[in-house]
Amino acid sequence: VITRPSIDYLAILPEMIVLGSALALLVVSALTPSRLSWRAGTAVTVLAGVASFVVTFFQWNRVASDGPSTTIAHAVALDGFSVVAVGVISVGVVLAGLVAHDWMDRERVAGVEYHVLALSAATGAMVMAQANDLIVVFLGLEILSIGLYVLVAFDRQRATSQEAALKYFLLGGLASAIFVYGAALIYGGTGSTSLTTIASFLGSSVLLNPGIVLAGTGLLLVGFAFKIAAVPFHLWSPDVYEGAPTPVTGYMAAIVKVGAFAALLRVLASALGTQLAAWRPIVGLLAVLSMFVGAGLAIVQRNVKRMLAYSSINQAGFMLLGLWAGTAQGVAGTLYYVMTYTPVIIASFAVVTLVGGPGDEGHSLERYRGLARRQPWLGGAFALLLLVQSGAPFTTGFFAKFSVVAAAIGAGGTVLAILAMVAAALAAFFYLRVAISLYGEGDEDAAHVPVPPATGAVIAFACVTAVLFGVWVGPLANLAQHATLLFLP
Amino acid sequence: MHSYWWINALLAVPMVAVLVVFALRKVPGAAHVTGVVAAAVETALALIVSFSYPASTLPATGEPVTFAHRVVIAPSFGLAYDVGVDGISIFLVLLTAIVVLLALLGARERRAESAFVAWLMVLTTATIGAFVSRDLLEFFLFFELTLIPSYFLIARWGGPERARAALKFFIYTLLGSGFLLVGAIYLAVVHQDNFGGPLSFAYDALANSGASHSALVWVFVAFAVAFGVKSPIWPLHTWSPIAYAEAPPAGSMVLTALLAKLGTYGLLRFAVLMLPAALSSVQPYLLTLAVIGIIYGSAVAAVSKDLKRLVAYSSLAQIGFIVLGSVSGNQIATSGAVLLMFNHGVVTAGFFLLIGFIERRRGTATIESLTGLQRPAPILAAAFTVVMLTSIGLPGLSSFISEFLILIGTFAAHQWFAVVAAIGTVLAALYLLWAYQRVFHGRAEGADASTEDLSTAERWVIVPIIALVVVLGVFPRPLLSRIDPTVHHDVTTTQVTNPTPGGAAP
Asked: What SS3 string covers B361-388?
């Protein structure tokens, strides 16, 4: 007899809203005789994002009063960490939806399919953030990835888009397979796929032959490393980032990172926390390689979109530092990092979308030369976004780097912290090079880059929040810390 | 106890000016006026703060720090707004205000002026913010913030090699400051481990972190690297000649007169005075580097082909003196070092102003393309002479007293370093007089002969500098009587018995 597990609907309400909107859009567009306008798609996306964001406030209240909990047979967690991560994904959905809206307008992409896919991918990311079971993590990973595979190929006019999608699909499929194999080994070693059970089993037993758990941990880590594009599992990302339609690239860079890092933190720091000594050196190596290879290869790029792809590899390296620490402070640091990085990276790719122009092809550094002279607002905003990513003081970018570096030092990783600072200086090199070329002597007759209102609002939002919360540091810092205190188990 | 609102005002006025400049960016000339007004207000505020600081004795509290205020902003990051001034920082705040005012008046950039003024104002807040910070994380934030405006000032208004110069400057300093951040976090973490409580970067917490001696030495070295790049200390100076040479005149003024001081100030405040236990282990190396800097800077200055590079290398030598005094562990030498920070700032600001005037007329500052300027431009030559003689260390002009204090203080503690450093003062006379000879003496022909003398406006800009070097040359008391008590209070590791500080002023 299978008993139906009890379901706490508040816990899964964000997923229900977002996935429900996607399904509703799909059904309505199939039933209406004339194709539903993409405007409807945007409206639904924004509403769904806002609604699920609002729901996270209710979730937060619940967690604050009743403490963290699990539901659906302990497969889904509702804790401070998941609430914040889901909130960030919701914000990402809204911002990316607005950017995509203007892009679809410009490229004459009809239909609501884009939004349906984007919403379903967001559901996957949310599931990952709340997963308390390896199977659910995998489920989230697949929901997230399958939506993105199609989105990457969405630009049917450009062969590179198709190529990127195929590459992403093949390598992503491989990564998923590796992940599942890792999950199977962990199940074999511990007798469960539930993260809580794994943690308590490993905490209360001495493994005579830890090989199978270690191998499982390693394979899980490889699977995650593929998703977050950590070196040396990054080879797909520059091509995919470059080939995908630019709004999709921004979306991917943001929500995949939030979802994957949320799950990664939960799996490693919480379920496999007792195996810290085993996975820490690997995470440290991934972090250092990502920071240096990402920064080093970004420097030689002449294509801004590709450069941002390498830059995002570099940023992933920093996010891994918090995981390396493995402490509450480290988890809070990485959470703060993805939280502040999301709007910034979406807005950065929004600028790239605009400058890329019709056809989404013009991404060479030359096109950016003198942009801030011709269009002070757009160029200035991009310069600011780049400075934020480089970790400029009095912006959230600085405190993001600060929080993970401080966590690493707190966990005894002073050498790692020094390496991180060197990598940050290396990374500043290419951010600044682009920033100054924005103010350089450019082609004064270059075409004016139109800034549609929705995209403009997204860019303004990212710039304002990056500076506002870089000066008024308290709220977000405390949020990340409180979220982590309310962390399962 | 004075109100910390004076400090808040010092930090806020330039930011208000940025907003005004931005609002009036379409009005021609408005930016310049706004900038000058803001810098003048800033100077007035700084004067009030400086001279309401009690002379000769410490404030009634016994602690040298006044105008103090601490409020924690983000407990989880240990971030606090923690300001206050003492005898060491107070005149650097004043210097900042004065140099920015003179830079705006004398080294105006008319191209994209509102952006220029805005960046300069951001730089003012950042620099003053760093000088008044009593919390290392806050200091670090302001310290890093100075990079962004300086970068844009060099990269947008600089000479032909500006992009490379600006990037080199930025990356070198950023690389150095990474060590500062790691060291600071390390100390804060150790303090938290030892004493519990939230993470804190407060000066007193970090000064008493309870870290082991060897750890403190490493932290000291990390800090010395960060500040050594900024100052710059030989051999970390390689970014500076090109940056000083390529920056616009206002940029060079700010870089040498103010940002270099952030390095030397940081070294004194957050390394030497905050980690005295570690000083003895690294002192011989730092003294050696300081002396090498003095001799090397002087030697390279002598063969420099360009006036800006000459002043850049001569600065390296002067910074050598400041470092020598700062790390000597001697009260007199430390007082001299603090005084020299101010005096050197005034002198290099004067140099770069005058070189800017020459460049404005001739489009070049290379020594060999200038000859006999004294006849067509006597006032320019006279002003240059005064500034140069100050830099040489002529008695009766401001730098003499500070160098003298450094040398006697260092001599008492580390005889041979003082002896070698003294050679540097002779070398300064050599390279500066030689350069003066080549540029101002001789027969002026062609463009040289028709070089215009200083305009009335330019004369008025240079007057404050001449007044400062002359007045402080004969009457340094207003400064020294405020510097000495703080130094006396803070320098606790002096091994040598000294005569009462302050008594050394001639």
From this structure: HHCCCEHHHCCCCCCCCHHHHHHHHHHH
